[in-house]
Design goal:
Helix content: under 10%
Structural class: mainly beta
Strand content: 35-45%
Shape: globular
Largest sheet: 6 strands, antiparallel
Number of helices: 0
Length: about 850
């Protein structure tokens, strides 16, 4: 079946290819390209092209990034596996990076350098944090593979004294595993299922295996016709796959008996190879570096697990040494990455074992582990909560083909509660027929009793935090119970469950954003003239009321309360009561209000004690305040049990709508005025684009987009927020095609109040031969556009780059981003992740 050189031949001898939760794909480097091949369908796709000499290859499944080295440019690159864009350079200055391996748990990259005879490591998130780990007694290091479960790395050396070695991922505990009957150990891979290493020898034409300790050596295949010049190898389930420079092919063989099949041939010079599948990178492994890099100033890496008492991680200095007092055991309190919070359990369902949660045997259906969307439309999550991607896992109840009120129960393992329990989780209850999610704390008697938390009905297409503190002592299990609704649109999802041995450290406050239809148990007054109404988007009348809520800043799903003036009489009153709150240190009451319209009347706020006497308002505002959400705040020195009463009074006409959102009650006097919602991040994921406004006097508009821009050799291939070219990653950009030289597009933020010091940050992408200019302006209430406070011109490379500027103003201001088109279509400019934070920018 040979074809002329340069063509790809797919041999469809793959009927028994194993499947789990997703189809396995083959990623491989082939001299000038990096490619993806689906052995089930025979489909072939180029991920990156125009490489000079692509050799080693690996990937990070969670971020969907594929990594490879080029031994001609002496650099290591990465790109999104689903994007055919210009790759990002993450490692420069290597000599001959023959082998790479991704630590997907601690988020580091390891590589061998045959030019410097060394092994190096760098952080995936900050590649400038980099160090040489091993640089002595190496001759020609080539293949490398890491095993973060046990903190070890393995590599081959095909020099004069060929060998396979092992060391901790911190460079310690180095030993030789194989140094006899070995010549050119080109490829090496670790089998996480069997704790075995497989390697191919290019001079002995062989495929062999040993265990992680160098024992049980076995030759699986030896043939100069089957393995004339094998280069790289990978393993998945019961098969190994390797590339061969002489056969120019990818071959698959049973790892037990060596029965083999050629999958792809007539390649150029196939090199690095990996199976792309979630089971290859188990997510049940915990990074003990935690969220603060383990307290390390440079690199935090896994430490070898020599015994049960071994430290879990090490801090590496820039020179490769282990920093003094840096080898940590996270089981000790002082080095716990979670501080003094003794977390009994944190389950994100990334591991197929689902953290040893147990399905109930007496219910009607089981919870199901899943990634991506649920099978039914208009119900269930589209992605997990942990990573917010299509690859992350959660559990859910599938309502299709079930009956109304069918029950699914899942039990946690038992926990010892000595200080009460704090139960936290994220839930997703989206669909018209969603029924109920209950949470129970069950002691050793097994009696379920009443739920400690419950939620019913459609809560919107969002992951929401659930939290309950229970004052229990003894051995307890937590039971999550999902109840099917009246139709298939009643899927319920669960993710990121955390059980802590102590009652929840809840803030001494209450925040209501009215996203819940229960409106936080606020109560309509029965003695007034009309009720407050829960609404989203615009109110029913023109020239009055908000166009979007304050919490989410969107007209798609963000809610608030308001009084509808249409159909009411002048001075009609609507009153809304909060629940009761204890005030032991006074009260801080904060809320956002919207009073827009020519006939707006009055909004009053009262603090009412247990006697129920309303008294006089503690805060009052009248008349039109403009079409904007404003912060209201009052501090009262009250002690006892109190309710807050919001009173809206209708004006003389229908343009008198008054709205309320994000009410926060805190036990204690207000300290400083809280910043408005605008002081947050805009990632452009919402179609509202955070209410940024297109200029009406420029030449063209900024556009919201995901994936690549339409033109080649310009613009990003993916957004900055998620780094994905799939659904869910958006940015703003100017499209140069169809515009003329020096055409201007301006984009304005909402207005922000005066400040003594803020840092404005954004990520920009300016890639293309004819990129012109991106300017940033700070514009005061006069609207006069002066000189830019920041500017960049010309091609900055195919990267997202951080821009920032410190701001201090005496009055209200807006930020304006101005993109200027260059002389040709390769002048796209992009913007993402605009943030405004307190304090001047750090340099």
């Amino acid at each position: 079946m040979d074809m002329p050189t340069g063509h790809l031949v797919v041999l469809l001898l793959i009927a028994n290819f194993p499947l789990k939760d997703a189809d396995p794909l083959i990623l491989f480097a082939d001299l000038h390209t990096v490619n993806e091949y689906d052995p089930l369908t025979g489909e072939y796709r180029t991920i990156a092209e125009n490489q000079q000499n692509a050799v080693a290859l690996d990937y990070d499944f969670k971020t969907m990034q594929v990594y490879w080295s080029d031994v001609s440019t002496n650099q290591i690159y990465r790109t999104n596996v689903n994007c055919n864009g210009v790759p990002e350079v993450i490692v420069t200055g290597a000599n001959i990076p023959d082998g790479i391996s991704i630590d997907w748990v601690y988020r580091n990259i390891y590589w061998t350098d045959t030019g410097t005879n060394s092994i190096e490591v760098a952080s995936l998130d900050d590649p400038n944090k980099r160090t040489k780990l091993i640089y002595d007694n190496l001759d020609e290091p080539r293949a490398i593979t890491v095993e973060p479960r046990i903190g070890y790395m393995f590599w081959t050396d095909w020099g004069q004294a060929a060998k396979i070695e092992r060391a901790g991922m911190n460079g310690e505990a180095r030993v030789t595993l194989v140094d006899t009957d070995i010549s050119w150990p080109n490829g090496l891979t670790a089998d996480l299922d069997g704790d075995l290493l497989y390697w191919v020898d290019g001079l002995r034409y062989s495929l062999s295996s040993i265990d992680y300790n160098g024992q049980g050596r076995r030759t699986i295949l030896q043939s100069n016709s089957i393995l004339p010049h094998p280069f790289a190898i990978t393993v998945f389930e019961e098969y190994v796959y390797w590339t061969d420079w002489q056969t120019k092919a990818i071959t698959k063989a049973n790892k037990f008996n060596g029965i083999h099949t050629i999958l792809v041939q007539n390649l150029n010079r196939p090199a690095g190879i990996q199976i792309y599948h979630p089971e290859k990178q188990s997510n049940g492994i915990i990074s003990h570096c935690g969220g603060n890099n383990g307290g390390c100033s440079h690199l935090c890496v896994a430490a070898p697990q020599i015994s049960d008492s071994s430290a879990k991680y090490s801090c590496l200095c820039q020179d490769g040494s282990i920093c003094e007092s840096s080898t940590r055991n996270p089981l000790t309190t002082e080095n716990n990455a979670l501080g003094d919070v003794p977390a009994f359990s944190l389950c994100d369902f990334e591991d197929a074992s689902v953290c040893n949660f147990v399905q109930d045997r007496t219910d009607d259906i089981d919870w199901t582990r899943r990634s991506g969307r649920t099978p039914s439309s208009n119900t269930g999550p589209s992605y997990d909560h942990t990573y917010g991607t299509l690859q992350g896992y959660y559990i859910y109840i599938e309502a299709t083909s079930r009956s109304n009120n069918d029950i699914a129960r899942i039990w946690t393992p038992p926990y010892a509660a000595t200080n009460g329990l704090c139960i936290e989780w994220f839930y997703h209850m989206y669909g018209e027929a969603v029924n109920t999610l209950n949470v129970y704390a069950v002691d050793s008697t097994g009696i379920v009793g009443s739920p400690v938390w419950t939620k019913t009905n459609n809560q919107g297409n969002n992951w929401i935090l659930g939290k309950v503190s229970v004052a229990v002592f003894g051995i307890y299990r937590i039971l999550f119970e999902g109840i099917i609704g009246s139709s298939f649109t009643s899927d319920i999802g669960l993710d990121d469950i955390r059980i802590t041995n102590r009652e929840c450290s809840l803030p001494d406050s209450s925040l209501c954003d009215f996203e819940d239809p229960n409106i936080c148990n606020f109560v309509q007054d029965t003695m007034d003239d009309f009720n407050w109404t829960r609404g989203s988007a615009s109110t029913g009348s023109t020239n009055t009321g908000p166009s979007f809520d304050h919490t989410l800043g969107t007209s798609q799903g963000g809610y608030y309360l308001y009084i509808e003036a249409t159909g009411r009489s002048s001075n009609d009153i609507a009153r809304l009561w909060t629940p009761s709150y204890p005030a032991s240190k006074g009260l801080c009451i904060e809320w956002f209000y919207h009073m827009y319209g020519n006939t707006v009347n009055t909004l009053n706020v009262y603090v009412v004690d247990s006697t129920g006497t309303v008294g006089t308002p503690v805060w009052n505002k009248t008349n039109n305040q403009g079409d904007t959400w404003l912060l209201g705040q009052v501090s009262v020195a009250e002690f006892g049990i109190y309710q807050i009463l919001f009173e809206g009074i209708r004006g003389s006409g229908y343009t008198g709508d008054i709205a309320l959102d994000d009410v926060k009650i805190t036990n204690g006097a207000c300290v400083t005025q809280r910043k408005p919602k605008a002081f947050s991040q805009c990632d452009f994921e919402s179609p509202s684009s955070c209410n940024f406004v297109q200029d009406t006097n420029d030449d063209f508009d900024w556009s919201r987009r995901s994936a690549s821009t339409p033109s080649v050799n310009t613009g990003p291939s993916f957004d900055h927020t998620h780094g994905t070219c799939q659904e869910g990653g958006y940015y703003m950009y100017i499209e140069a095609t169809g515009q003329t030289w020096n055409n201007i597009a301006r984009l304005w933020t909402p207005s922000y109040p005066a400040t003594n010091g803020l840092c404005i940050k954004w990520f920009y992408h300016m890639y293309g031969a004819t990129v012109n200019t991106l300017n940033v302006y700070i514009v005061d209430s006069t609207g006069a556009v002066d000189s830019p406070v920041w500017t960049r011109t010309n091609n900055q490379g195919n990267f997202w780059i951080l821009g920032q500027v410190s701001v201090s103003t005496s009055g209200i201001y807006r930020v304006m981003f101005e993109g200027i088109r260059g002389i040709d279509f390769t002048g796209d400019i992009s913007l993402d992740d605009v943030t405004i934070t307190d304090g001047a920018c750090s340099t």
